[in-house]
Design goal:
Length: 366
């Protein structure tokens, strides 16, 4: 359907033929396509294209006619350009007075709709009292008050107030515990309050059960640690007769440490010590032990197989057996998993060494 309209004088005036889809619901405005050529506009008009974000909204000053046939509509709009008088026969359009409907809110985003009607008297809400239950608990719902108003009200009243979703619950037995956002309606009486108390009790039971479970697990862990301490006799410290200072800083110190590990008793003592080093998983434990034994400088001179860049083979050292025995004493895993963790740690040793050097240089500049 095609519509003849007249634009407002502030937008240049003039009449035009548009598609009914281009009009706003109340026909007070029209969406105008952004075409510069007349043939493009005509094709869009005949197709009845729907408006999009590129179209511009203009106010309509006058509404002439509606016509199904395009050729008839084109003749009428030409006549309107000359006379602006199209009242003939059964096409006479009587002006109707529009009465703005009263509404509580407006869900439409059209710019030509009236603003919503303000509702008066909502601020003077009368307090509602809930019937007391068998325990004599009286619950009163009062309107929302600010913190200063609440403090003043609490000083003037004997019964405490509990704020819940902008509503205060006032009880004669003290603070009424509330764990949910619900509250009893005036017609629910003691049934609503009992529901709140049941929810509260259920929550407390779950909390107590959870705490009991946590305590049982803690006791079990402490028992295991106590048994482990009893089995070893005492807390294991680093042996005092280790011939080098750990972590080793030079390759020749590593050779001395390897010779020390040839003694089975001393080897077992070190296994007991390094098995106490913790970590959240097997990889973390391996990395922690390696950091205590090797510096990044020495680790950069090693690789697991030692086949590239003249690096020493780590797999031929007794150190790998020390690490494997220490980790498997307290953790589940395989030797292959431990070897993979060692390979990754040795691979990134040069990067860690460069980062340490950069950090030392920055400290020296200060």
């Amino acid at each position: 359907m095609f519509v003849g309209i007249q634009f407002a004088e502030k937008d240049g005036g003039g009449v035009a033929l548009v598609h009914h889809k281009w009009m706003t619901p109340r026909k007070g405005e029209v969406w105008w396509p952004p075409y510069k050529q007349q043939d493009q506009f005509d094709r869009s008009l005949k197709r009845g294209d729907s408006p999009n974000d590129n179209w511009v909204l203009y106010p309509v000053e006058r509404f002439f006619f509606e016509e199904q046939d395009y050729s008839k509509a084109a003749k009428k709009i030409k006549k309107a350009e000359v006379t602006s008088d199209l009242t003939s026969g059964d096409e006479i359009l009587s002006k109707r007075r529009r009465l703005a409907p009263k509404r509580l809110f407006s869900s439409s985003s059209s710019s030509d709709e009236e603003p919503p009607v303000k509702i008066k008297g909502l601020s003077n809400i009368v307090s509602r009292k809930v019937k007391a239950d068998s325990r004599g608990v009286c619950v009163t719902a009062v309107p929302y008050r600010t913190s200063s108003q609440l403090t003043q009200a609490c000083e003037q009243q004997e019964l405490p107030l509990v704020r819940e979703n902008n509503v205060y619950l006032q009880t004669s037995e003290g603070l009424l515990p509330t764990l949910t956002g619900s509250q009893p309606e005036p017609n629910e009486g003691s049934k609503g309050e009992s529901c709140l108390l049941r929810e509260n009790n259920a929550y407390l039971k779950k909390s107590v059960a959870l705490l009991a479970s946590i305590k049982a697990q803690t006791d079990q862990i402490l028992n295991i640690l106590s048994q482990r301490k009893t089995a070893t006799g005492c807390v294991i410290d680093m042996p005092q007769d280790v011939p080098v200072s750990l972590p080793v800083k030079q390759l020749h110190e590593l050779v001395v440490f390897e010779k020390y590990l040839e003694n089975e008793t001393k080897f077992s003592t070190l296994v007991s010590y390094f098995s106490t080093i913790g970590g959240r998983d097997l990889k973390c434990k391996v990395n922690a032990i390696l950091r205590q034994i090797l510096t990044n400088n020495v680790a950069s001179s090693l690789s697991f197989l030692g086949s590239r860049n003249g690096k020493k083979p780590f797999c031929s050292l007794k150190l790998i057996k020390l690490i494997t025995s220490s980790v498997l004493t307290t953790s589940k895993g395989t030797e292959n998993e431990i070897n993979d963790a060692i390979k990754v740690w040795l691979k990134h040793a040069p990067k860690r060494q460069a980062a340490d050097k950069k950090k030392q240089d920055s400290v020296g500049d200060i």
